Amino acid sequence: MHDVMASSTQEWRRERRHRQGEGRLKAYLLDAHASSDDDQSSILALLQRACELQPGASVEETHDALLFMIYLDNEFLVVDAAEPRFMIVHTAGRAENTDRFITAATDALPDLDCAWLPSAFLLNSATTIGRLRRGTVRYDNSQLLGQVSAFEAFPDEIDNEDDVIDDRDGRARGKRLTLDLADPRGARQALEELSELDYFRHALALSRVDLLHRDPDSGGEMYSVSRVFDWGKVSAVGTSADSHLAVLFALRHRYQTSIERIEREFAIYVDQDGQDRGRFHGQPISIRFQVPIDDIGQFARRLFSSRRPFSLWGEPRMRSNNYVTVHGLDLHIGAPIYCEIMPDAIRVYLQRGTCGNTVARLYTNLVRHYDASATLYGRGAEDALLQ
Amino acid sequence: MPSYSESLLLKNVFLALTYRTANFPSTLHQCGYDEVYIEKAFTNSQLKHVRYDFAASAPARNRSVLLEVKGGQYTRPEEQRRLQQQVQRYAAVTGEDVVQKAGFSVAPGLDPRQHEPQSFVVGIEGQMDGIMAVIPASTSIPLLEARVDTADVTYGGAVIVQGSCTDPQLAAHLGALPRMYPIPTTLPFDLESRDIDIADAIVPVILQLFYRLPSVTTFRTQDVIEQAIPIWPLIDADEQRSYLGRVRRILGDLAAHGFRGWFEWDNGGRQWRIMQSLGQVHAERMRTFRRLQSLQHQALGRLGGGHLQQATLPLDGDEP
Q1: How many structural domains are present in chain A?
Q2: CA pair distance B208, B212, nearest whole angstrom
Q3: Domain that holds residue A348
Q4: CA-CA distance, A225 to A24, in Å (whole number)?
Q5: Is A288 near chain B, with CB under 8 Å?
Q6: In which domain, by residue range, is B80 found?
């Protein structure tokens, strides 16, 4: 890891950016819901199923029971399953190969998903784990609103190594905004100032941040700059692989804490036995919009159209002009999800056993594809989740 | 046409008043009533059996509210006799009963013997005459009238129409609200619900079972209900049988019409057999789900008898 990081950093300094396809130390944070309390053989079986999706891919155990090697044609990946549910896959392979492998696995396997990191989570992670160096805004409401293109801007600093994943649809409708806030001192300030402008206020959805982290005892010499994407990918340059790992572990901890809280406190169920028999637990989680939905019927229809990135199936029912209910299915994990959609909010109900990652995916993508100022909360507006 | 049964709407109203969610008041939660029990059964001070539809305890305030929910007019003599008996039993419920027998918690430092429970009978505005005729004004059980629009599925507050609330904090929060709020439907259906509402809730559960192929190829009606209704374990055996019969009939209808060829009743195995796979490849599975969406639309339209409120939601083949 140290060698890869050192060489890629020299290259990065020379050119200030990587050409597409060149290997940079990177990691993917995954949510393997079904493996939450599984043993080595179950994790191995899951990784084998992932490898079966790509010709030439294979997985091997190592001497460490929770460390696995995945070999692709020209790359290898190291799977750290120390937290079996929230795995981290490390690689120095070329993004075009490793992204494809990860995307194919998370697309096809119901028990494996990306970690979905909403805009506010990215921003707060950057400022609590390290320092925000750069932020990239990508916003596109065409999928949910289906309007004619109104605005488009592409800065030339954008690193397109993730474009295959970021723009899977490729068709531009509605408002489509891409901004690169590269000023290391002013990214946060720029976001705040832009949000004062009407046009940008509800479109400043961060799709990735560059996070500078320094090893605390190195006097500033040892550091990493981690590029954290909203789908759980983290690529890094710098002088310290330990710093990169510290960022990854901190991100995983923040994400894991949020997801487990969603599942523990909000999933709906009743106690079945003993004196607590009949005790009701859970409640809906709310997503509050600052941009009211004009046509909640169309909105619901598009949201539950089975299409990416929401991957939700369902038949919306208009209860009134301001109220739509949908008994749906999260196609990714194959679990029922019930939603109530109103012009300014969505209530999301999770069954016990449903992965909290469903909420993370829905919220992250609503921020990116509808209202960047939307908030997710549990027990009241002051109880924000996934921030 | 009402979308949900009235008693289900009332249960969902009071359940939602115990938590905080978007666009709905949190009247009970604000007064500390956030420990919730559904279908709670215990014996009163006279050792008579009581079973409340809904109860919420405020451990930090050493209080609880217990609700008997009555959707409908209650004009039939047998309904009125039963309600009368229930009210007599509720009048004999003491703090000791709910703490020691029902197990409601009391915050440390508070005396469980001082726990103050209060029972209410709850009905819907405009449907209280039958209920009021049964419950004498002299009883200690107040009548609460909820403003519920069953067509729009909205709630606009609750008013005491007979008796009084012993919790001054709660009494101050009761009353008509300035607007109507969409009711959170935490409990999706009951035996009085229409077929369309039951089918709406159970189809995603059936499709979830398809994900378990090939290791699971069959399912029971009970598997579907257990997943669909969170309070299934609390429903008594007789009622569970009624649910099973009702849902089995709807599953049969779906299997014969909307989802024909997807699952069928296996008479020998006395269970449902899954007949098709969703597909292994992502793109194939997505195509399958779009087809299933169309089938669900048609199935609900059929079960709704043409009353499916989908006018603004056409199935557009050319959606993005």
Answers
A1: 2
A2: 8
A3: 275-377
A4: 12
A5: yes
A6: 6-182
